[in-house]
Amino acid sequence: MSSSVPASASRISLRALGSQLRHFVTSSPSRFAIVVFALLILLWTALLSLPIATADGKIPPLSDALFTAVSTICVTGLTTVDMSAYWSPFGHVVIFVGVNIGGLGVLTLASLMGMVISKKLGLSAKLMAAGDTNPLRAHGGAVNESQTVRLGEVGQLLTTVAISALIIEIGIAVLLYPALVMAGVDPVSALWEAPYFAAMSFTNTGFAPNDGGVAMFADDYLVLILLMAGVFLGSIGFPVIYSLAKHHWHFKRWSLHAKLTIVTTVLLFFVGAAVFLLLEHSNPKTFGSMDAVDTTVQAFFLSAMTRSGGFNVIDMNDLYGSSMLVGCMLMFVGGGSASTAGGIKVTTLAVLAIAVWSEAKGRQSVQVFGRRIPSDVQRVALSVVAWGATIVAVSTVAITQITGDDVIDVLFDVISAFGTVGLSSGVTATLPDAGSYILAATIFMGRVGTVTLAAAVAATSRSQLYSLPVERPIVG
In 10 A of CB 84, how many CB atoms? Predict the structure, then answer.
């Protein structure tokens, strides 16, 4: 009897530990996202480590399998190997499925699965889905009027997510197929390449299934425009797609989030193209050897891809240093919230820019489009930029120290990793194992999100029933 008592106590303690662990993981959407993303990365690492996943039938090094898995699930597009030649058809299918799962978002996918099983969403599932579509849900406390998607609309949003992703990818693939065939791709090969490119553009990943990538379509404007369209639709975010589907082109009825996302995205698209044109027009390795039409198209394509798309026609090493720095800025900003793009998000930039303008004008509150932006949103925006800059700085210093490469090249790849962009100066392909692990961690933190990561580590927000004396330090 004495031996059965310890065994029973051990089972009870294990059950209690499991219950506490389950509560810790599922009590917060942010923690749940981190855990599920990590588990998916481990699963995809295992799948890509199989001999059947490589073209030569050999087991790949752990660093290459892990890095590709992280880049796939986090829809980044950076790679330490030649994607078209290194992986087998099985490996490419694994990568294709992985980017679609990562693009939709684990929380959204889990909620969709729950809705299919139960035919309706419970309150818990709605809260988790709202956490994925609204960054402010990662924090405790009441949700105010700045909430992007109301709980009652989450079911409709999830339906929009699934349907829009399916329709957009199929639509782009259907349009890409004849464009690829006309560009010289074999009709049979195009049956695979069209949906592959469609998925990689909509998820803002940037992997290419063919030898030479998108560079072989440098003079095919139709292919480039379709890829830009896919990247744009994926980067604006599902809440914006939902708002557009609900209110169509009635701008006044759009949510403030949709207005800020669309306006800032379009503005950065045109400003980025104009700056690249100005800086690179005399560069014989890039725009200097092109005519006016080619230069214009390539400038817009480069502007779109540095936002998070990841496809490139021009070798990033051929850009002037000033253009690479501009590319770093665009990659750091990224796309829209709750989208397949990464970065600090365009709404974060918009909120900070509006706050700075309001301060310069001496306004008591931050206002735009007839709405007031509350102070908690401004604090979140500042936190996102601060955490993002810290992650980029630490990773850049560490990788530069390990590799001894030029700091601008390392910075470019690190920001590309953080913003889940996929463009590279060439540093990533030559990284030692230690450097690839650091860059993989940067990708993970960039995809999961700085606010989500901070909220997962920090304790739940607690109400403070007192206020401390005010004292103003000198700032500036």
Answer: 15
Question: How many CA atoms, within 13 angstroms, populate the side-chain half-sphere of residue 12?
Answer: 6
Residue showing tokens 């998108």? 214
Let me know: does 200 contact 79? Beta carbons within 8 Å: no
Measured CA distances, 84 to 79, 81, 208, 263, 398 (Å): 11, 9, 7, 36, 30
Q: Which amino acid makes up residue 443?
A: I
Considering the entire predicted model, what is its pTM? 0.85
- Find out whether 203 and 235 touch, Cβ atoms under 8 Å: no
Task: Identify any residues that bridge with 54 across adjacent strands, giving them in sequence order.
Answer: 87
User: E strands within 213-369?
Assistant: 366-368
Per residue in 369-388, pLDDT (tens digit) is: 888 888 878 888 888 899 89
- Find where tokens 């601060």 sit: 386
Find the largest Cα–Cα distance for the chain: 89
Over residues 266-280, the pLDDT tens digits come to: 999 999 999 999 999
Q: Which DSSP helix (H) or strand (E) runs through 295?
A: helix 292-304
Look up residue 87 and give its DSSP letter.
B
Number of other CB atoms surrounding residue 465 within 10 Å: 5
Written as one letter, the residue type at 450 is T
Three-state DSSP state, 371: strand
| In contact, 79 and 66? CB cutoff 8 Å | no
The β-bridge relationship of strands 366-368 and 371-373 is antiparallel
**What's the CA gap between 137 and 143, in Å, rounded?**
7
* DSSP letter for each residue of 100-130: HHHHH-HHHHHHHHHHHHHSS--HHHHHHHH
The residue count of the chain comes to 476
